[in-house]
């Protein structure tokens, strides 16, 4: 039996232009540059360049219906295919929503011409070193398979059996696990020493093995890793001394030697990837205030190609009834023209929104930009959203992945957001300030008797920051500081 029901609901649907604006808003500078290049390639009516009479569109935007609107409104098309309001299109105001972008083009050309450094991956270096060894052809194939199986952190986590199977299957060779182990042992002793180890213990033992016997503490360090590895990871020093029969001095010598080794040789360099941070904003001191500049790559000069505008005017002056080709051309031009208009408007609104967010951040964090670290105020996304009268999600998209150049360095915008903690004096401070104090206390503690989380909480309370032990634990973990037991070190009397 069919049952018909009538329901009333409220839905908000985004227009294609609004979706485009949202996607552009969350892009960082370099990603935006790539997105603009893709749009220029796909839309022949859109081009980048200097001003060209009245056709300049770098600051073109749609007239807003409400100064507080966050998203561009969908454009209404002309009722007639032969009409297109060029005056409205080309002479739209450049201060959309009351903001006009301050753009910094000063270093743009230098940035575009920045040469990439000549680098080579560790994998290439290892293959070059293998070529200098007395390997036969089969051993070189095994070594190449091993090098190709190393993870980004420099470890070999594939079983020897899998490497054996790959070599036999790909090259039709009959080899044994002993052959792979022998080649692997030679590869592990290439530069960087310890590369292609299967676990941390093996990595450290390989580095000790290539050291000369004259290195102080080497023999005890090898025994420490081979026979007392579990006790070593737990820092049970008394148990290690009893098992190895060594005194505290010999234990410290061996322990310090192990600590000097590289736990992850080749980490970060195995797959070459050079990342440069390109600031989206620059905040400069200007008399008693600050001046906010937007990176020039966020404000490209875009315009409509003159040739296509003339083509449109010519076709509009002609009678196209019955001429299918002319009508098809006009439809194409109109579609691409509307697309160009939407894109330019979205770019304009993106940079205006970004400036509004950055100005609000500077307004709240004025002391930081004036004096630097140690003067951050508690601030959340909602604080910015209330100032600029936009949704929190919009602020989040602006903040995510964006950077600002200040007098004190380059910071991610997320750096300025933190929760607040009320001190004994009733003043609210940033939890980042509390974390800095916690880090200082841990750095000054007695390494032979590290402080527990409860003791850290008591010391923070003495400095005017009454926070719970569980909060101290959370902050300690966020700082990457291990528990007290693992911070313990051997301190000789």
From TrEMBL:
Limits of the RNA polymerase sigma factor 54 core-binding domain: 118-308
InterPro entries: RNA_pol_sigma_54 (IPR000394), RNA_pol_sigma_54_core-bd (IPR007046), RNA_pol_sigma_54_DNA-bd (IPR007634), RpoN_core-bd_sf (IPR038709)
PROSITE patterns reported for this sequence: SIGMA54_2, SIGMA54_3
Annotated segments matching region Disordered: 41-87
Recorded superkingdom: Bacteria
Official protein name in the record: RNA polymerase factor sigma-54
Family from the record: Belongs to the sigma-54 factor family.
Biased composition (Acidic residues): 47-72
Residue ranges constituting the RNA polymerase sigma factor 54 DNA-binding domain according to the UniProt record: 331-489
Keyword terms: DNA-binding, DNA-directed RNA polymerase, Nucleotidyltransferase, Sigma factor, Transcription, Transcription regulation, Transferase
């Amino acid at each position: 039996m069919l049952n018909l029901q009538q329901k009333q609901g409220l839905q908000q649907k985004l227009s294609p232009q609004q979706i485009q604006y949202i996607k552009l808003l969350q892009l960082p500078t370099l990603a935006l540059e790539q997105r603009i290049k893709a749009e220029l390639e796909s839309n022949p009516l859109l081009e980048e360049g200097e001003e060209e009479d009245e056709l300049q569109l770098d600051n073109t935007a749609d007239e807003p219906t409400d100064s507080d609107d966050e998203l561009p409104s969908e454009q209404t098309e002309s009722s007639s295919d032969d009409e297109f309001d060029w005056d409205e299109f080309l002479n739209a105001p450049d201060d959309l929503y009351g903001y006009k972008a301050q753009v910094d083009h000063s270093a743009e050309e230098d940035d575009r011409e920045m040469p990439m450094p000549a680098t080579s991956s560790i994998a290439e270096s290892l293959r070059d070193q293998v070529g200098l060894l007395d390997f036969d052809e089969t051993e070189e194939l095994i070594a190449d398979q091993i090098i190709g199986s190393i993870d980004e952190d420099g470890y070999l986590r594939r079983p020897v059996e899998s490497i054996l199977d790959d070599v036999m299957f790909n090259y039709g060779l009959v080899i044994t696990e002993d052959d792979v182990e022998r080649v692997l042992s030679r590869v592990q002793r290439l530069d960087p020493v310890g590369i292609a180890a299967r676990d941390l213990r093996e990595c450290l033992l390989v580095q000790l093995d290539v050291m000369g016997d004259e290195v102080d503490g080497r023999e005890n360090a090898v025994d420490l890793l081979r026979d007392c590895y579990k006790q070593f990871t737990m820092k049970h020093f008394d148990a290690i001394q009893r098992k190895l029969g060594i005194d505290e001095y010999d234990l410290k010598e061996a322990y310090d030697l192990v600590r000097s080794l590289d736990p992850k040789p080749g980490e970060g360099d195995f797959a070459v990837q050079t990342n440069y941070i390109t600031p989206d904003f620059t905040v400069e001191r200007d008399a008693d205030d600050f001046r906010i500049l937007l990176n020039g790559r966020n404000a490209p000069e875009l315009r409509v190609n003159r040739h296509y505008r003339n083509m449109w005017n010519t076709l509009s002056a002609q009678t196209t009834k019955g001429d299918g080709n002319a009508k098809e051309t006009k439809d194409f031009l109109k579609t691409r023209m509307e697309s160009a208009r939407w894109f330019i408007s979205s770019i304009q609104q993106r940079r205006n929104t970004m400036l509004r967010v950055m100005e609000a951040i500077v307004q709240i964090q004025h002391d930081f930009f004036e004096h630097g670290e140690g003067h951050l105020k508690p601030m959340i996304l909602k604080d910015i959203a209330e100032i600029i009268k936009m949704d929190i999600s919009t602020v989040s998209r602006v903040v995510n992945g964006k950077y600002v150049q200040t007098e004190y360095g380059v910071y991610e915008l997320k750096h300025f957001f933190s929760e607040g903690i009320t001190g004994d004096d009733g003043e609210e401070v940033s939890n980042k300030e509390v974390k800095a104090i916690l880090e200082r206390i841990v750095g000054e503690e007695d390494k032979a008797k590290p402080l527990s989380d409860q003791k850290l909480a008591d010391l923070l309370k003495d400095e005017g920051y009454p926070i719970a032990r569980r909060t101290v634990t959370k902050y300690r973990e966020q700082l990457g500081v291990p528990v007290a037991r693992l911070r313990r070190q051997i301190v000789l009397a």
